[in-house]
Amino acid sequence: MIFSIYTTTNKAVQYVTDEGCRKIGCLRIPLSGSGTDRWVTVRLYFGVTEIKVEGKEEATGRITSTVVDFLL
């Protein structure tokens, strides 16, 4: 499962395809098993210059994480 992360300075944006939106990263969460009924919890932790994104597959408890660093 892939979660894309976007940013914009526009406060009236509705869609990631709107003007001013740009992709800044993604989180790829490997899933076990098959089927469409698989639960994932995604958390975003906001810090000073970075955002930590964490995805947890509920069936296995496996956690995948990444960091978006705005100083790069």
Description:
The protein has strands spanning 2-7, 22-28, 40-46, 50-57, 63-69. It is an all-beta fold. The protein has one domain. The two termini are 25 Å apart. The model has no long low-confidence stretch (mean pLDDT 87).
Task: Write out key terms for the chains shown.
single chain; 72 residues; mainly beta; 3-stranded antiparallel sheet; two-stranded antiparallel sheet; 5 strands
- Kindly estimate the percentage of residues that lie in beta strands according to DSSP: over 45%
Helix content: under 10%
Query: Multimeric state of these chains?
Result: single chain
Strand order in the largest sheet: 3-4-5
What structural class should be given to the helix and strand makeup?
mainly beta
What is the H-and-E element order?
EEEEE
Rg (CA only): 14 Å
What is the residue-mean pLDDT, rounded to a whole number? 87
- Backbone shape: globular
Number of E-state strands? 5
Poorly predicted residue ranges:
none
**What's the number of helices?**
0
Distance between the termini: 25 Å
Overall structural domain count: 1
Main sheet attributes: strand count, strand direction, barrel closure:
3 strands, antiparallel
Tell me the layout of helices and strands.
Layout: E1 2-7, E2 22-28, E3 40-46, E4 50-57, E5 63-69
Antiparallel strand pairs: 1-2, 3-4, 4-5
